């Protein structure tokens, strides 16, 4: 049996949270994402503002009390920056731990990172997220009797 491997010229290095963070920095150096935001919208909104070779970038607006629910980003690594307000990220490692980020707080994470992000504040928050490589799937979870259970898997072009 013969194994065939891609040539070194076609192999791309594995994307990391540093790739996502660099994509955020690059985007912010040339764009003002807050100019795109309507803080009066009563529901959490998200829009992909850039789709690149290295990363996808999403702008999310968070009314007070809104959250993502428990989820991961498939194998994509990521980073996000809080541009306005504050967000609390609960990370699952068998138990939930919380960190609150205020503008201009930045968070990086590797692939298969499971978290829930919530705006516990009294005013809207805005964040910019990058995923490297681009976000292709998200797994949703529900906390049941102290354990996370998969409830669905969303895939790009099927759900969003």
Automatic annotation (TrEMBL):
Gene Ontology MF annotations: dioxygenase activity
Superkingdom classification of source: Bacteria
Record keywords: Dioxygenase, Iron, Metal-binding, Oxidoreductase
InterPro entries: CDO_1, RmlC-like_jellyroll, RmlC_Cupin_sf
Transmembrane segments: none
Keyword Metal-binding: yes
Any Pfam family matching the protein: CDO_I
Gene3D superfamilies assigned to the protein according to its UniProt record, in alphabetical order: Jelly Rolls
CDD domains named in the record: cupin_CDO
Similarity comment text for this entry: Belongs to the cysteine dioxygenase family.
Record's protein name: Cysteine dioxygenase family protein
Originating species: Nocardioides potassii
């Amino acid at each position: 049996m013969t194994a065939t491997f891609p040539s070194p010229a076609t192999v791309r290095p594995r994307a990391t949270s540093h790739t996502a963070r660099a994509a955020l920095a690059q985007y912010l150096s040339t764009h003002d994402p807050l100019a795109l935001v309507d803080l009066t919208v009563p529901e959490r909104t998200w829009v992909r503002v850039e789709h690149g070779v290295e990363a996808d970038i999403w702008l999310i607006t968070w009314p007070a009390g809104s959250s993502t629910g428990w989820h991961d980003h498939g194998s994509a690594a990521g980073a996000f920056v809080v541009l306005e307000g504050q967000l609390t990220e609960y990370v699952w490692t068998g138990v939930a731990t919380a960190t609150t980020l205020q503008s201009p707080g930045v968070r990086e994470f590797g692939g298969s990172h499971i978290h829930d992000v919530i705006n516990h504040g009294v005013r809207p928050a805005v964040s910019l997220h990058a995923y490297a490589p681009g976000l292709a799937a998200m797994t949703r979870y529900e906390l049941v009797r102290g354990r996370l259970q998969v409830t669905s898997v969303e895939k790009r072009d099927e759900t969003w």
